[in-house]
Amino acid sequence: MFLKQIKLSSQAKDKLSRLKGKTGIENWNILCRWAFCYSISEDTIPADLPIVSDSNVEMSWYTFAGDYGDIYEALIKNWCLEKDLSIDDENLAKYFKLHLERGIAHLSGTGFIKSFSDLINLTEEKHGNLS
């Protein structure tokens, strides 16, 4: 396993707190899943900026991924392979964290997310109706 613990930056924690209030989603891990998936669906590579993991929001890989850890790991591995990046554990952890932080920033920066249904609408706009 490439990552055992996930600790967020203070900025990400603050942004997630605002998203929690807007969407009614109470659990950090659920919002983090949305954020990761949103970022990884972008065509660009996240900026390779240092992440200061200085908040008190920390979760295990299992808390983040639940029973779907293999799927999230496959997503980041596949993304790295598509970008011709190494898939060693260090690189996978690095890009996972960069995607997570970028996804949180994107979701909190989009002024139209005011409710849970706005997250659904964002997904439908990006990928079409999933039903």
UniProtKB/TrEMBL annotation:
Pfam families to which the protein is assigned, alphabetical: DndE
The protein, known as: DNA sulfur modification protein DndE
